[in-house]
Structures are given as C-alpha cells and as structure tokens.
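Box 3.1. Reading complex inputs
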Amino acid sequence: MINITLKQLRYFEALARHRHFGRAAEACAISQPALSMQIKEMEDVLGAALFERSARQIRLTQFGEVAAERARDILRAADELGDLARASRERLVGRLRVGVIPTIAPYLLPKVMTDLSARYPELEIHVRETVTPKLIQELSDGQLDTAIVALPVSEGTLAETPLFHENFVLVRSAKEANAPLPNADSLREMRLLLLEEGHCFRDQALSFCNMPSGPPREVLDASSLSTLVQMVSAGMGVTLIPEMAVPVETRSASVSISRFEAPEPARTVGMVWRKTSPLANQLTEIADVVRQCA
Amino acid sequence: MINITLKQLRYFEALARHRHFGRAAEACAISQPALSMQIKEMEDVLGAALFERSARQIRLTQFGEVAAERARDILRAADELGDLARASRERLVGRLRVGVIPTIAPYLLPKVMTDLSARYPELEIHVRETVTPKLIQELSDGQLDTAIVALPVSEGTLAETPLFHENFVLVRSAKEANAPLPNADSLREMRLLLLEEGHCFRDQALSFCNMPSGPPREVLDASSLSTLVQMVSAGMGVTLIPEMAVPVETRSASVSISRFEAPEPARTVGMVWRKTSPLANQLTEIADVVRQCA
DNA sequence: TGTTTATCATAAGAAATAACTATCAATCCG
DNA sequence: CGGATTGATAGTTATTTCTTATGATAAACA
C-alpha cells in the first residue's frame, strides 16, 4: 500500500494557495517539475484530481477544495507535534511519579512538595509511599519516575545520587531522660521496639546493634515511627528514629531524645531513577531542590 | 527545515502499539533496523525522546504518550483523505452549478431537478439563469460546472453534447387562429414581437425570417417568453416560442398556436462544459438524465 | 559462573525515491 | 504569425530509505 506523504501535502497546500505551479514551487524551494510530479503522484494515489488544469490557469476541483482544508489541518497537527516536543524538552512539565519510603515521607515531603510546585508550576507530582523493595520494583517497571530511599540500592539499572545524611537518635520514656546513654551492645539487652519487617530502617537499626536482621523478634513490630514513639511514651521500651522525625514525632509524646556518641548510627538518603530514564537531567535538578529542603 | 514524515508517524504508531521493535517492524513489513532508524530520525527531528529503551523492554516517554495520540489523529486524518477521494470518485456528490438560458429554464428545470435529485441524492444543484454569453463566460471562469444552451457554442475550450431538438411555433391571438399560416418571408411584414437583445432565441427567430439580428427594432422587446405571449394575447402582434414552452405559456392566455410547415424553424439544445472539467464523466451521465426529461 | 538468547543499535552496500536541468507542447497576446 | 507564459515530460543525478550482516548489552539459563 503506497500512501501520500506530508511532503506532498505541503506542496499541495502551497499550490492550492498560489494556484500557480511556478510560484508554488518557488515557495517550496524546489523546481517546478518536482512540484508537478508530486502533485501528480498525489492525485494518482488518491485516484482523484485535485486541480483542473486549463490553458492559462489552474483551479481546485471540488474535491481539491475539501482536500486542501484537510491538508491544512494535517499539516497544522504535525507542526503542533513539533511545538509539543519543544515544550516538553525545554521545561519539566506533566506528571512526575515519586516514591518515598515511610520513614522519610512525612518529614520531608511537605516542604519538598511546596518547593517543587513553586519551582515547576506545570508539574503534577504523584507520591507513592511504601517500602524500598516495592519502590525499586515499581521504578523498574516504569510505574515510578524516581524514588527517595536509603542508599545504597545497588541496582545496576538504577542511577543514584545522595541527598543528605542523617543520624539516628535514641528515644526513651521521659523518666529515663537522665539515665546513662547505652551503646550499641547494651541496646541489645534493652527492649528495642522496631518497625515491622520490610522497612529498611528496621534493618539499619538492627545492624547498629550487631543483631541479625532476618528472623522476626519476640517484640511487637510497629507499622510507623509514630506508633513506635507512642509505644515508648507508654513505657513499653526504647527505639531509634531518624533525626529528621524528631520534631514531628515528639510533639505529642512525653519521651526523651538522646544522641549517640560517635560512631553515631546513621543512614544516607538518596534519590534513584532508571539510568535509561528520559527525565534523568531533570531528576538531577529535582534532587538539588530536595537537597535544599533537607 | 527537515521535517517528520507520515511514514515515521506510521512506524511510530506501530512501535507505540507493539512496544517491540522487531514485532512493530514486522507489522510495518520492514526490517527492524529500518524501523530503528526512522524512530531515531524522528526523535532527532523532534528533539525529544519518544521511547525509553531499557534492557529488555521499551516504554513510551511521557512526551511519547502524547505524541502517539497525536500521531494517531494525524494518520486517521490522512486516511480519511483517501476515503474522501474514493467517495468523490465513485459517485457524484457535492455541488453542481448549472447554467440554463431563460428560454429553457422554466420548462425543463422542474422535471430535471426532480429527476437529478432522485438519482443523486447527495448532489446539491445550483442553478444560474441568464443569457448564453454570460453563461459561457462564467463557465470558462470556473463559476459554473455546466450550462444548457442552444448549440452550437463553438468555443474551443468547451465540450458540447446535444440534448434535444425543438421546433418553434407561431403564437397568434386567438381570433387569428384560422388565418393562413405565414411563411418566413410574410412574417417579416407582420408585427413580430421578440425578446430583448442578448437572448439567442431572438437571433434564432430573426434568422428564420432572414432578418439582420444586430440593430434594435422599433417594437417593444420583452424580457421573457411569458411576457411575449401575454402581449400577443393583448393583440399587439405575433411571436415565436419554442415548442417546449407551449403548455406552460398558453395556459393563461387566449392565443392560438400554429406549427410551421417544413422547413420548420428549430434549434438544438445541448449541454456544454469545460473540456478540462474533472466532472466530465459525470456530466455526460447527467446529460443522459436530462435527455430522458426532454 | 559462563553460555545462550533476546533485543536494539550500527555499518555498508543496494534499491527506491525525489530532485534538477533541459526541453516540449499548448495557448494566449500583440 | 512570433514571442511569452505555463505546465508536462524525459533523462540524469542526488538523496533517502531499505536490507543484510554484525555488534553490544543485559537477561535467562544451566
């Protein structure tokens, strides 16, 4: 199946406008025979005459009139595709799907969302909050554009950039405020409350205590830092939370916060995306904005 | 300025649908590298990535999604142009601008319009009624598609086909009904009422009497056959009218109609159109329909 | 862990398409 | 009738697009 081409439509449109092969050809920056051939080809393909050629002038046929209108529509649509491409290339627009782990989302997102919206008004931000393995899976599947997680991710297909480094602090009930600071080993002897399995923060905390991360423990596992703090406040044990969570989580709980001595437990939070992502350039820009927020 | 092509849009659409270069290429009946190259070319021209290629699968970029939608619109519009061409080629549709001389129009058109509309329901018929020279001019200018006039027209650029032959009859007042039939020469002595200048029928009548057609005559010239007959009915003279006009024009006038003896005055009515007209085929068909009516 | 498989990109030559120059044919005009 | 204008045609060249063969990379497999 042979078909018409946009080039033919362009030539046709010019001829319909000029009603003169020579001038239309000049307008298209080609020779008159080239125009003649393409018009003829187009008429052959369509199986209908577009122009009526009489001795000294040419006229659009009735079909030609209709076709000229359609041709203009098509050419305009094609041009718009170019405009659209330019727009999408010049600035970050459209939808950005961001995944964030639950031990970061509530503390970082409010400011990040505000700043990003201010900087990229045309950007529609979707947030997905879940544990790292799921985020990585969804990222790889193309359901997310980027994710904010604890580094390293060590996934060959993903690019990662660090955002900030944060320490973990000890949360004890208010009445233990002046008790001696436990070290990593003594923590193991205490009733350490942790997040349920799957959260990387659980593993990071356990690793600080040199405890195996795998098997479930006898203690109740919480589903959020907020719950953990409330449990501590109720005297059920102690826990660790990232520094960033302190202002939010201790507002409505009577607990004491203590920093560890060096080497303090800590984690690096970073942003990851597919190495192949077409948004790679914009994502490094966004990482900068997030860094400002932290 | 290099630009995208419809071919690229077709390939792109296929790839967007299959999300697989090999299968999309197969669907387009080309080799996989050919598809790769055209997609690459298209991305280069647009200056934006359409697909994100990762190891084992490809995905549309956000821009690609939008572009795919547009591409489908454009391709559909291009296909419709083909459909439109086919429709316009297969049957007579749209507008047909017909010119008819005033000494034919009122008698022939009612039936012709009815029959044509029945046969070509999608045909919109415009009628222009004026004298032959104006019709020929407008036909040549492309303001008319065809004209029904008295033959011959003898215009090199026009094609003509005869429709019917009609005699002229003598119209006298009712009380002259039994008077002897004048011949061409005796007509010259009578008060012969005629149409105003410009009407071919005037010239044809004069030519029958062997009188010069040019100079204005002393008698009142009428603007329609109807007026002529009414004048005859009022006793102002005699006239000739084409046979076809008899039923209509003598309905409300007390006149007598007489046929001449051979050689009877007559004219050939025919249809003309530009030799270059794209409607030429359809016009011969229409001439057949008109012939049926006469 | 190395091997196979799947998949898209690249390269080089061949085929197809579109362009140009030169020329023709028709017609209008003085 | 002769020159000028205009679109069509022919032959050749230039460009584009395709094909085949091959490469590179990562996933799947054993």
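In summary: Chain A touches chain B through 42 residues (CB under 8 Å).
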